[in-house]
# Entry
Amino acid sequence: MQLESPQYNAIETRDLSIFYGEFEAVKNVNLKIEKGKITAIIGPSGCGKSTLLRAFNRMNDFVPSCHVQGEILLHGVNLYSKDIDPVEVRRKIGMVFQRPNPFPKSIYENIAWGARINGYKGNLDELVEQSLRGAALWDEVKDKLKQSAYALSGGQQQRLCIARAIAVQPEIILMDEPASALDPIATLRIEELMQELKKNYTILIVTHNMQQAARVSDYTAMMMLYPETRSGTVIEFNDTKKIFTRPSDKRTEDYVTGRFG
Amino acid sequence: MIRKTFEHEIQQVKDDVLTLGSMVEQAIVGSVEALKKRDIKSSEAIIAADKEINKRRFAIEGQLMILIATQQPMAHDLRLLASTMEIISELERMGDYAKGIANINVRMGEETLLKPLIDIPRMAEKGRDMLHRSLTAFVNEDVELAKSIPVEDDEVDALYNQIYRELMTFVIQDPKTMERANWLLWVAHNLERVADRVTNICERTVFIATGELGDIKDSDDEFWRK
# Structure
């Protein structure tokens, strides 16, 4: 089954399977992710959404038993080739997590630190401002850059994490339930921000909130478990409008209308 | 998992649409019956009952709004609720056509009918029957049935043409019949519109069931083609 969005691809998977030891958590995923768009991954709990998302920037490498089969191609290069440095992969493909995880440092340092370690040659002040502006946080924090990031609200912390992610100028941003720990207003701000971000970045988001997927994404991948093997896979990949108004797979219909199972 | 409460409320809305539909059916046939008998009291009752039709329509609209806001429907549910919104508005308009016919009877006062009514009651009965079946198709989401009804609009159009020609001969023979002919033409026109709106209900029904939205039948402008 070839699943693809029609335009130019930012990244694609080919026959991608992800294992935890012997257990095949994600089976045979073929996705082509369009550049400059937001692609949502939805599906019931435990179907492998986060596992799939984390495979895109090799975050699963931190799980010792985890290994992959198949390929993830960025500009035609397999990210899992032997000669690829996973740190470099994570620079090109940033990530924002469910709970905001700023460093226990100042707002300024949260952004400048990584850049400095990477030997950033430009003006750090400018980078900090640019990144905070990009994450729609600048106006709220410009007068307290030296304060601890922990003094910020949850929503601001999450936007700080987004600013930190874009400071290294990635091509793709992965978001794993980025708003699930936030209140509705902070959630909407993140969603608005995503619309801005997609002008410069390709975004992949995992969300349990179907309304959120419907609101923010251009494409949606629906994942399900194979009942026999408990492996997750993508069963439908389509224009988001279509997924939420007339999905072609009955299981997608049951899931998005809340009648799954 | 079944969304029991939601399912129950959807069923409730469908029942209410059926009730509204039967009120409209009665109004259509009743308005023509009253005209045929020149029964002005009945026509006045139909005009009064139209208020009840409008009230019901607004009540259903309110229910639908609440369901959309609280249940955040997707896919089939979304198509159903959005289309039902459309369908109740079609029903209300059909009620208005019946009221229009009742108004004509009242306005005719002491005037006699230009001719005994034969084809007009046929049109009314045909329209009522089409409406009834279209709502059956709607509640059962029966695509086959919904697709089979719009073609019958041709029969209604044919009756309308026949009535039109017949009334024109009266007018040509005796221009003094102009006003009385005009009243009946107006009645026939309202009934022709009823059938057109039935087609819209059928199209929405197909959309609810399949997600395909479009014309079932090429044109409803039979009258203008001849």
